[in-house]
Amino acid sequence: MPVDLVKGQRISLEKEAGGSLSRVVMGLGWDVAQPRGLRKMFGGGGGESIDLDASCVMFDGAGQPVDTIYYSQLRSKDGSIVHTGDNLTGEGEGDDEQIIVDLTRVPQNVEALMFVVNSFTGQDFSRIENAFCRIVDEGTGTEVARYELSGGGNHNAQVMAKLYRQGGEWKMHAIGENTSGRTFRDLMPAMTANL
To answer: What is the pLDDT of residues 119-159, one digit of tens each?
Structure first.
């Protein structure tokens, strides 16, 4: 049974998975919020597309970015992390974007993987609902942990979670820090503050 994470919670991925993990999938899903109240009565806000982008930034022990995996660079330079592609609308069931991490191939100098999401089209998170990120054991397809992203508010980005090495194992920290920015570059100050 997966762990439902709350903001700030930290877990051992191996402990929660019941053994060692070699490949994990960070999945991101969301839906466009359905109009409510006056917006629904007068036909506003429905049928729009919202392009959320999931990105992963690899950091070394000194807190310096080593590489970034996002819609324009779908594979890390070392090949350990692969983004499956950009979903421009959030339509469909399940994960809308996925980032696959081969934990055994992440270079030893990389100590943290930061996962962020931002609205490339600029809409704030009051326009989305049912947003989540989750970690899945790729080998078994088992969901290890899930974190419901906060909806509402005028932020258009969030530092979702961090995978990090500690004592020879990978752990996850559900960060959930709301911020603003249209690309991962805009989110670098918020990411480095959470290393």
So the answer is: 888 888 888 888 888 889 998 898 988 888 765 678 889 89
For the segment(s) 3-193, the CATH number from 2.60.120.10, 3.10.180.10, 3.20.20.70, 2.60.60.30 is 2.60.60.30
Tokens 């609902």 belong to which residue? 129
d(CA 112, CA 109): 9
Cα(172)–Cα(21) distance, integer angstroms: 13
Helix, strand, or coil here: 108? coil
Cβ atoms within 10 A of the Cβ of 178, count? 17
What pTM was estimated for this model as a whole?
Answer: 0.86
Are 172 and 24 contacting, i.e. CB atoms less than 8 angstroms apart?
no
